[in-house]
Automatic annotation (TrEMBL):
Functional description taken from the UniProt entry: Catalyzes the cleavage of L-kynurenine (L-Kyn) and L-3-hydroxykynurenine (L-3OHKyn) into anthranilic acid (AA) and 3-hydroxyanthranilic acid (3-OHAA), respectively.
Protein name as it appears in the record: Kynureninase
Catalytic activity: L-kynurenine + H2O = anthranilate + L-alanine + H(+); 3-hydroxy-L-kynurenine + H2O = 3-hydroxyanthranilate + L-alanine + H(+)
GO biological process: anthranilate metabolic process; L-kynurenine catabolic process; L-tryptophan catabolic process to kynurenine; NAD+ biosynthetic process; quinolinate biosynthetic process
GO molecular function: kynureninase activity; pyridoxal phosphate binding
InterPro entries referenced in this protein's UniProt entry, alphabetically: Kynureninase, PyrdxlP-dep_Trfase, PyrdxlP-dep_Trfase_major, PyrdxlP-dep_Trfase_small
Amino acid sequence: MRTMKVRTIEQAKEFDQHDSLRRFREEFYIKENSIYMDGNSLGLLSKRAEKTLLASLNDWKEHGIDGWMQGSYPWFSLSETLGEKMAPLVGALPDEVIVTGSTTVNLHQILATFYQPRGDRTKILADELTFPSDIYAIQSHLQTHGYEPTEHLVQVKSRDGRFLEEDDIIEEMTTEIALVILPTVLYRSGQVLDIKRLTEEAHKRGILIGFDGCHSVGAVPHSFSEWDVDFAYWCNYKHLNGGPGAVGSLYVNKRHFGTSPGLAGWFGSRKDKQFDMEHMLTPAEHAGAYQIGTPHVLSVAPLIGSLEIFAEAGIENIRQKSLHMTQYLMSLLEQELSGFEFYIGSPREESRLGGHVSLEHKEAARICKALKENGIIPDFRAPNIIRLAPIALYTTYEDVWNVVQTLKRIMTEKQYEKFKNEREVVA
Ligand SMILES: *Cc1c(COP(=O)(O)O)cnc(C)c1O
């Protein structure tokens, strides 16, 4: 029989002392007497992100229009420069990634460009657990092509409402499927899909496949190029700490360079041609071709500083600590909260575990409110999920310990009973 060592606060402190990423915590603005567990929804501001945002504002102040080519971070090539810096986080070539648009807009670009129904191949395959915005985008493209979404959008079912089985997804890759869109990590349960295997299986069947990386990029490393993923898109305000509404990212496999952008605009031009102002677009010969209009410079500027931090910390180190912390959180929850009717709805195997833990409880909405009252910031996903994300760059093991102790107190004292079990407008 295996005896489990009882976890103590001393052990948490010891983990913190041996944490090789410890120094990065000081780079972030962390509110006193508060523990932020929601970095998977909106990452915290770092001092470096603040600095590069202020530098960009100053470039505007100092240079006016000349900021496009001068200043600390010339705006004209910023989307490409940041794409290069982003590429190692997803295992892509430097010119396969462009920082542009937003998650939903980039999915629209992908669909407009690569969804080309032909013959019997008219359907799009997604899943029933994915983020609603992705589904809305897919439905709208089917409608534009004159197809009924109820028939042409195939959504893989989950067996238990939490996870997806790769086998079930592959089974749906029929001769009627033109394109597959899946999340890298499911936003509720935090399950990581086997991207390599799914891509291989899609390609064997002549199907294009792309991934929504919102919940993984910055927490989980990927090898998009090596796995031959066709395209991917993600937001930069969650694990990447780019700030509210930060400009998103788009990856296009170099095999597809030269495919005309479905949603064209002048910022997709070859840079040397853009200001020729011709009415015939000459697209860039890399992922930059899929940009549309003028970049939102002030919404991208914090990312310059933030990506420096990721380059220094290293995504493999971040993943290692993140995995250890999420496992630690789950085992603490088991140790301290048995008997309170919680259920851990995240995978336990490391290869399937993303950057957050999904804790299910029928009183989840009001337990979240009680956590907030106690200075702990979780997030709530209807109907019954408390998501907790220990972030490698700024959460300590002691924080995790304190979160679980507070949760235990809330349950023991039934503190949640004074709140309504309903979600807020923004959850
Ligand atoms: C956060 C998130 C989005 C949000 O899309 P925006 O266009 O940035 O609003 C989309 N998909 C997933 C999976 C997400 O987690």
